[in-house]
Design goal:
74% helix, mainly alpha, two-stranded antiparallel sheet, MetI-like fold, 13 helices, 280 residues
Length: 280
């Protein structure tokens, strides 16, 4: 029975994950619109992406910025909230629920909420800032809209990271903290030298989730302005080229492969470093 369940899971994994992945890699070397005959073009799609497709440069910049913001701002903030809530302060359950609430919402819903907050003419933020007569176009200005959207995406990511780290903190053996305190370590030293290293499995999970969230971001920008005018992302370009008006499945598949390679590069590099440290 166990073999049947594992076999079914393996078949589904091959059919739904690895099958489309191999198909995308193969199609990335072709010129195909879904109707015409397949035409093998080699690396032509990749060359065109790098040299003659301006949205690609903007999308890479935005994806890197997205990933950096989640990793350097939202993730540490989620960890800070987890540490504070682990101390069982007053109204801990309320704060947990409030911070986690955005996680149950899809990024598309977060995008619609962001429109209500950042809208130029009726947005809550301009009203709070008293800019009704001279409103800031938070979502229409390509110089600032990426930062506004990152704030909304980070709002959701913070709650996710907080819950993961809070679970990790609850699992840390209290005797380790007590031993560090007996040795004269301060709370900060105990956290960075004892508690955080103990949560290495959680750190790996958070890293993988952060990389995935940073590179697969799509819903929120598509809900706001279809991922254009300063909000270009690689995932949006993949969608536009594969299922857009001018279907270029081969070209879109090449973009998808580039996105896959970037994601695997981050994750594999970190996992290799972890394995090397474990061997030592």
């Amino acid at each position: 029975m166990l073999a049947v369940l594992l076999g079914a899971a393996l078949v589904l994994d091959l059919a739904l994950v690895w099958g489309p992945t191999v198909a995308s890699i193969t199609l990335s070397f072709t010129d195909w619109n879904g109707i015409s005959d397949l035409r093998w073009v080699g690396t032509e799609n990749y060359q065109d992406i790098v040299s003659t497709y301006p949205p690609f440069q903007r999308a890479v910049r935005n994806n890197v910025l997205w990933l950096a913001f989640l990793a350097l701002v939202a993730t540490p903030l989620g960890l800070l909230f987890a540490v504070l809530l682990d101390r069982e302060i007053r109204f801990t359950r309320f704060y947990q629920s409030a911070f986690y609430l955005p996680v149950v919402l899809s990024l598309a819903i977060v995008g619609f909420i962001a429109q209500l907050v950042y809208a130029r003419d009726y947005g809550a933020l301009n009203a709070l800032l008293g800019r009704e007569n001279n409103p800031i176009d938070w979502l229409g200005d390509p110089d600032i809209n990426i930062w506004a959207v990152l704030g909304a995406a980070g709002w959701r990511h913070v709650g996710y990271v907080m819950i993961l780290y809070l679970a990790g903190l609850k699992a840390v053996d209290p005797s380790l903290k007590e031993a560090a305190a007996i040795d004269g370590a301060s709370e900060v030293q105990t956290f960075f030298r004892v508690t955080l290293p103990t949560m290495r499995p959680i750190n790996i999970i958070v890293l993988v989730i952060t990389v995935i969230e940073g590179l697969r971001a799509f819903d929120i920008v598509y809900a706001i302005n279809n991922g254009r005018n300063g909000l270009e992302l690689l995932s949006v370009l993949v969608t536009e080229n594969i299922v857009g008006e001018a279907s270029r499945i081969g070209f879109g598949s090449a973009l998808a492969v580039i996105l896959l390679v970037i994601a695997l590069g981050f994750i594999v590099t970190y996992l290799v470093q972890i394995l090397r440290e474990d061997r030592r």
